[in-house]
Amino acid sequence: MKSPLAKAGILLVGMYVFLKFILPLMTAPLPASLIFLYLALTFAASAIFFTMSGDGLDEFMGPVGRFLTGEGQTGIANTARILVFLVFPLLVGWQTYTKLAPSDQPPAENRTIHPAPPGEFVGLANPFPKTEENIMMGKGLYAAFCSPCHGANFDGKGPAAPGFNPPPANFSDPGTIAQLQEAYLFWRIKKGGVGLPIEGMPWKSAMPRWEVELPDDWIWKIIMGEYDGAHQSPRTWEEEE
């Protein structure tokens, strides 16, 4: 009979194969960060299930403890244990170095944090007055369509946010929408991540093309709700000049 730790490992492998290769055949591919999140939840659930009793905890952690202490291990098993202790720190050091070492290689594409919108969006202004009624309607639409990613507090920490890389924008940060005109937000919301030009792809977004689901007047009111909820004000064309 397989140990609980082996069963948890088999479950993790099965979950990875399903998320990586089977699920994309039925729906869109999942981001790597979301796959990692599901695997972490699967392992946590397995660990909780197998360690609910004292005997289960001993059986689950027994192989790990015996490997670390070398109890009852001789010959090939003990040699493999020593090799793991030697190789693991080297791998961690190499991975850390490759992440932190400066690179002289140019980026794959030109990088611009805020690529210019197409000409059809330049100079647009919100056609709706900033009344309390319009702002409240915008916040309601935001709660329904945007808050799962951008958060109920407009801080980019919605329940779905951990699944995306790059993460959803934090509207309460003065370095985001406060630096942009409403016309820019209208373009980004309407056309989504797929509407970014090539120079913006290093900051590509998973945001959908909302023009498919939302009429223009809803998008403009969502923008009002975003600015009001984040306690920010949009830049104006006069400020740009």
TrEMBL record:
Signal sequence segment: none
Keyword line: Heme, Iron, Membrane, Metal-binding, Transmembrane, Transmembrane helix
Keyword Transmembrane helix belongs to the record: yes
Domain Cytochrome c: residue ranges: 133-230
PROSITE patterns (alphabetical): CYTC
Stored Pfam families: Cytochrome_CBB3
Residues annotated as transmembrane: 6-23, 35-54, 74-94
SUPFAM superfamilies per the UniProt record, alphabetical: Cytochrome c
Name of this chain's protein: Cytochrome c
Protein species of origin: Candidatus Nitronereus thalassa
